[in-house]
């Protein structure tokens, strides 16, 4: 059951939750990658950024998939934003929990 919704997230909070991946853009600067993301749920949308992400991790999920995100809520341009620490698809999360290939 979902505990934290996008519209309720406040700067300083930690979050580990499932969201729909609505947008994803991999950006590179000076040989380092960051992933600019838009996540959503039934309450609304929230921007997110994953700094120093590997290209492989960034490409694991496609727009429209359900992802489990762990991160900290910060503020960017007076709007809440998730600083992603880890993200994986719901399918991958289930595989790791169950320990089986699906």
Polypeptide structure, described:
This protein is mostly beta strands. Helices cover 13% and strands 55% of the residues. It is globular and about 40 Å long.
Give helix and strand order, one letter per element, not per position.
EEEHEEH
Query: Over the alpha carbons, how many angstroms does the gyration radius reach?
Result: 13 Å
For this structure, the CATH topology is: OB fold (Dihydrolipoamide Acetyltransferase, E2P)
Major sheet characteristics: 5 strands, mixed, barrel
Helix and strand content put the structural class at mainly beta
Strand order of the largest sheet: 1-2-3-5-4
Low-confidence stretches: none
CATH class: Mainly Beta
Strand percent estimate: over 45%
Helical content stands at 10-25%
CATH architecture: Beta Barrel
Overall 3D shape: globular
Number of contiguous helices = 2
Average pLDDT over all residues: 91
Short description:
Helix content is 13%, strand content 55%.
Topology, please?
Layout: E1 14-29, E2 32-41, E3 44-51, H1 55-58, E4 66-76, E5 79-89, H2 90-98
Parallel strand pairs: 3-5
Antiparallel strand pairs: 1-2, 1-4, 2-3, 4-5
Which features does this protein show?
2 helices, OB fold (Dihydrolipoamide Acetyltransferase, E2P), five-stranded mixed β-barrel
